[in-house]
Amino acid sequence: MLQQTEEHAVITEKLKEIVGQEWVSDSAEELYVYSYDMTENVPGNPDYVVMPKTVEEIQAIVNLANTYKIPIVPFIAGANVGGLTIPLHGGIIVDLKRMDQILRFDEDDMYVIVEPGVTFGHINKFLSNTNFRYCYPNAPPFTSIMANALLGGLNNLSMKYGAMSDIINGIEAVLPTGEVVKIGTCACWDEHWWGRGSMPDLLGLFINWQGMSGIVTKIAVQVWPKRPIREWVIIASYSLEESYKLIKNITHADIADDIMWVSAETLKMIIGMPIGEAKIDVDDPLPTFYAMVDISANTPKEFEAKMDYIQTAMMELNKGDPKAFQTTAAIGGQMFGKSVTDLQNLPISIAGMLEYGGLTWVGTYMTTKTETVVKGVKTAFDIIEKHGFEKCLYTRMMKGGHFFAFRFLLRFSRENEEEVARMRALTKELFETLYEQSAMPYKTPVWATKTIIDRCDPNWVKLFKKIKKTLDPNGIMNPGRWGTDEE
Questions:
Q1: Are 366 and 438 contacting, i.e. CB atoms less than 8 angstroms apart?
Q2: Are strands 410-413 and 325-328 parallel, antiparallel or unpaired?
Q3: Helical residues (DSSP H) of 162-253, grouped into ranges
Q4: Is the pTM value of this prediction over 0.90?
Q5: What is the pLDDT of residues 95-136, one digit of tens each?
Q6: Does domain 6-95 have CATH number 3.30.43.10?
Q7: Residue 95 dihedral angles phi and psi, to the nearest 5°
Q8: pLDDT tens across 242-287, in order?
Q9: Whole-angstrom distance, CA of residue 341 vs CA of residue 333
Q10: Which fold is adopted by the domain 102-225?
Q11: CA-CA distance, 167 to 153, in Å (whole number)?
């Protein structure tokens, strides 16, 4: 229960003066909604929730937080893993959903400027009548574009362009001390957000900082022309090693927009298999791994040339895996259900993922070295099987094959305390094992950051904490992340 101290009452009233009475709450029922997410991370209650509409309101909230030394946690949908918006020290949840405008679309320089509350569903609808496309993760339509970009998530164009943080042109942000700053070419010309320019690039102060360095209020992200021809090729394989070699071959040929490489258990989850029933046993006739190759082209001749390369890659695959085969998304949909073909048209809420109240993953970026990836899959499968969960591998090559997105989608029942405890043990063991194989987690939970800080370059840690202290002298911005509670 909240203790209704005099200070608490004063702060509540001051927040209402800033944004209006209807956009502030300190009721236990409404605070509870913000105390947890869909993952296994331990809940934590805020003391207030406030929903600003303008940059000026955010500045006033930040100034108030500095006056009373109250923590602030930026929040949009709360759909990211890692417990990143669960308050570790109470304080104010700043819910940014009301800031939901698409502010500008520049067709010449191919970018859009959006506020925090603009979702993948919003941008998909906005661009549907244009000749441009954005990139989408396998995430629900209500997920924030800005949150995913600032947290370095992946998407269905990541094989070409990298993590979503790589497609940011610039931002506007309210610093922890209340000032507004612009980063990128927009710092020089408000009408030009075409890039980060040749000036010192300060955008890194906001990427993967989990809201510790300020509240971003505008972001410019890149879009790309739509291509008139697009097809998915699905390649099924019974061999881990041969399937991954195929992935690398197609990636290095630079002919695909995306390659999503998944295990059979992931495919079963996607088509809606109930929790626990997606597990594969030794007698299951399904191929073990599936590569979903997204091919687009401007002309039939270009498309034909890309498909010719796919055939060459298939011939090489069949030398090591004679039973491997190729099919189309349409045929895959007939075999496995409409959910497979739906994956082509993101954003979507994937069938089978969210019905049970609990979903998490250990998402990492790592080397593409064949021996490391193959060892990583085998080791991770053994760990997941030991803890009694489904081996739902879900991966992508990133940025032309310069690094690899390696993760597992893990379903569990949040109502089952024993299952939640097992999931915590699993994610911890999985992270610690993969970290030793050069896998670095993204959207990193607090418990994992402690391991990284203990093992990485101590001078990096000193520099990080020095920057954090300079930006946020009162330690109000999402405190407790990345060791910021430690002296």
A1: yes
A2: unpaired
A3: 240-253
A4: yes
A5: 999 999 999 999 999 999 999 999 999 999 999 999 999 998
A6: yes
A7: -85, 120
A8: 999 999 999 999 999 999 999 999 988 888 888 888 888 767 788 9
A9: 5
A10: 3.30.465
A11: 11
